[in-house]
Amino acid sequence: MTNDVKLSLIVTYRQRENHLKTFMKWWETDRAKKICDLCEIILVEVDVSPSEWIQEYFYRDNFQYLHLENGGVFHKTKALNMGLLRSKGQYIAAFDVDLIPISDTLLKHLQMAQLSPQLLITGYRVMSDLEMIDDFNTSMDFSSNIITDTYVAPEDKETALWKHLIRKERFGVVPLFERQRLLKIGGWDEKFIGWGGEDQDIIERYLESGRYLCRSPELVYLHLSHPPNPGWNEPHLVEQNRKYYYAKKKPGF
Predict the structure, then answer these.
(1) How far apart are CA 20 and CA 55, in angstroms?
(2) Closest to 151 in 3D by CA, of 225, 44, 56
(3) I need a labelling partner for 204 at 20 to 30 A (CA). Which of 184, 189, 233, 241 fits?
(4) For the segment 152-189, what is each residue's pLDDT rounded down to a tens digit?
(5) All structural domains of the chain with their residue ranges
(6) What CATH code would you report for 7-249?
(7) How many helices (H) and strands (E) would you count in the chain?
(8) For the segment 37-74, what is each residue's pLDDT rounded down to a tens digit?
């Protein structure tokens, strides 16, 4: 492990093999080599038992593998906090296993964060119909066929933008948090279980005391397709988390 880690990516995972294999392949590309020495990747597998093939892959410099025993509802916030406590980077990002940086996005993202300590720098995502990418020989930029069939992410549709602009809800893709401040505010709220709300909640808590959110169109991540996740984003779990989020935000909001 390098002693000069600037960015820790915490990847939570359960039974999304196609996405994880694509993620692993990206880290073998020339694009990844530009930032690999500055990063550590902490994968937290949330499942009944650990996957040996993943452990073998992650047994290398700048990679960590952790296992959170859990066969029930996917407890992402608990897994993120587990990764946070093992992290060494100056900056921390919760990095979804279905995201792939376009071009030099990840390197630019870190550079912007280092230049702007009072800003929480976040990016955007474009949604793809692809579930897996087998070949990264293309340039993986805006001229690539890989991102030809894409569409705008839900958080940038009109109804979501109304929440951002009028109701002051905060969201951004791959926010880079300063590790010490993240620890100071207690990390992710583990009362969020399943999908939804935990990302907005931590951004809003982090932004207190004179910090501001900045979403940059220079930072674009490709979001790979996947079917609904059993034990994670069923409607009753989403509703439960949204109610908890709004109760925390402001009574009657």
Answers:
(1) 12
(2) 225
(3) 233
(4) 899 999 989 998 899 889 999 999 999 999 999 999 99
(5) 7-249
(6) 3.90.550.10
(7) 9, 9
(8) 999 999 999 999 999 999 998 888 899 999 999 989 99
